[in-house]
Design goal:
about 280 residues; mainly alpha; Farnesyl Diphosphate Synthase; two-stranded antiparallel sheet; 2 strands; globular
Length: about 280
C-alpha cells in the first residue's frame, strides 16, 4: 500500500518537527528519548491513527496528536520491555537497545518521559485522550505486560485462549488506542468505533502471532532484534502451543474475523482490510 508509505513519511516529518521544537532537552535522558523514537520502525500505530481519522471522514491532520502519542507510548514500552528486569534484550531495530546505549537508569527515565510526553500531545483531544489512557494502562498494555511477565518460564498459560487474552491487552490495546483514538479525534460515532475496536483487537493478535512465527523462522538481520528471544525467556507462544502451521492458520482465522467486523463500514473499511492482508503477508 503506497498510502502506508505516505503516512509514514508524514509522521516522520511531524516527529522531526515536534522534537526540534520541544523546549526542554535535558541530556542524557532527552538524547535517549530521541534515540528510541527516531530509529524508524514500521510506524504501524501512527498509520492506524491516520486511517481512523479517514474512516471518520477527516484529514490526517486531526489525528497528528494521536499518532505522536501512541508512538511515544509504544516506544516507552519497548524501552522498558528490553530492560534486564523484563525481556533483557540487547538489540532493537538493528541497534543497541536504549539501556545498552545509555545505561539502565537513563533508559527507565527516558521511558517515563515518553509516556508523559504522549499525554502532553493529547491535551485537548477529549474522548481520544481518555480512551488512549485506558488502553495504555492496567486495562490495556500495562495489564498485558503484567500477564506476559507471569508467562515467562512457561507459567500461567494453559492454552491459546489465555494467550489471546495476554496479546489482546499487550498488543491489541495499543492498536485500538491508535485506530479508535484517531477516529474519535475525527468525531466518529459509537457504532463506527465499536467496529474499529473489534478489528484492531484481531489485528493486534495477528501481529503478535506473526511476530511469534518470525521469531522462529527469521534471523537477527531480518528482524532487527535478537531472534529466539521467546525461547530464551521461556515464554509460551502461539508457535509453541499450536506449531508453525497451527499458528499460521490461527492468524488467518483472526484476520478473517477482523475483516468481517468492518463489513458494516462499507467502502470506509476497505483500506483497513487491505492493511490487515498486508500484515499477514509478512509470513508465508
Amino acid at each position: 500500500m503506497s498510502e502506508l508509505n505516505l503516512y509514514k513519511e508524514r509522521f516522520e516529518r511531524l516527529l522531526e518537527k515536534y522534537l526540534a521544537e520541544y523546549p526542554a532537552k535535558l541530556s542524557p535522558v532527552w538524547d535517549a528519548m530521541v534515540y528510541a523514537v527516531s530509529a524508524g520502525g514500521k510506524r504501524v500505530r501512527p498509520a492506524l491513527a491516520y486511517m481512523g481519522a479517514a474512516v471518520a471522514g477527516k484529514s490526517e491532520e486531526c489525528a497528528d496528536s494521536v499518532a505522536l502519542a501512541v508512538e511515544f507510548i509504544h516506544n516507552y514500552s519497548l524501552i522498558h520491555d528490553d530492560l534486564p528486569c523484563m525481556d533483557d534484550d540487547d538489540l532493537r531495530r538493528g541497534r543497541p537497545t536504549v539501556h545498552k546505549a545509555f545505561g539502565e537508569s537513563t533508559a527507565v527515565l527516558a521511558g517515563d518521559a515518553l509516556l508523559n510526553l504522549a499525554f502532553e500531545c493529547l491535551g485537548g483531544t477529549g474522548r481520544a485522550a481518555a480512551y488512549i489512557a485506558g488502553k495504555s494502562g492496567m486495562r490495556g498494555m500495562v495489564g498485558g505486560q503484567c500477564l506476559d511477565l507471569a508467562n515467562s518460564g512457561g507459567a500461567g498459560v494453559q492454552g491459546a485462549e489465555q494467550l489471546d487474552l495476554i496479546n489482546s491487552l499487550k498488543t491489541s490495546a495499543l492498536f485500538q488506542a491508535a485506530l479508535v483514538g484517531g477516529a474519535l479525534a475525527g468525531g466518529a460515532d459509537d457504532k463506527t468505533c465499536a467496529a474499529l475496536e473489534t478489528y484492531a483487537d484481531a489485528l493486534g493478535k495477528v501481529f503478535q502471532i506473526v511476530d511469534d512465527i518470525l521469531d522462529v523462522e527469521s534471523d537477527e538481520k531480518v528482524l532487527g532484534k535478537s531472534a529466539g528471544q521467546d525461547e530464551k525467556n521461556g515464554k509460551v507462544t502461539y508457535v509453541a502451543l499450536l506449531g508453525l502451521d497451527g499458528a499460521k492458520e490461527r492468524a488467518r482465522e483472526l484476520n478473517a474475523q477482523g475483516q468481517a467486523a468492518l463489513d458494516c463500514l462499507g467502502e470506509r473499511g476497505e483500506r483497513l482490510k487491505q492493511f490487515a492482508t498486508l500484515l499477514l503477508k509478512r509470513v508465508k
